[in-house]
Amino acid sequence: MPVTGPRVAANPIPYWVVGNVVNKSREVFEQAFQDFSAIGFSAVKVDVPEGMSTGEYKAWISGYGLAPALSNFVATFTAEEDHDEVIERAKRFARHQLDLGIDTTMLTARMVPRRLAEPAVGADFNAGRLYDVIDRIGEVCSAFKREGVTALLHPHVGGWVETEAEVRQVLDAIEPALLGFGPDTGHMRWAGMDPAALILAYRDRVRAIHIKDVFPDYLDGRPTSGMGYFELTGTRRVWAEPGLGVIDFDEVVAAMPENYRGDYMIEVDVPSVEDRYESHRMSYEWAKAALSFAAL
Question: Given a cut of 50, is residue 1 above it in pLDDT?
Answer without folding.
Answer: no
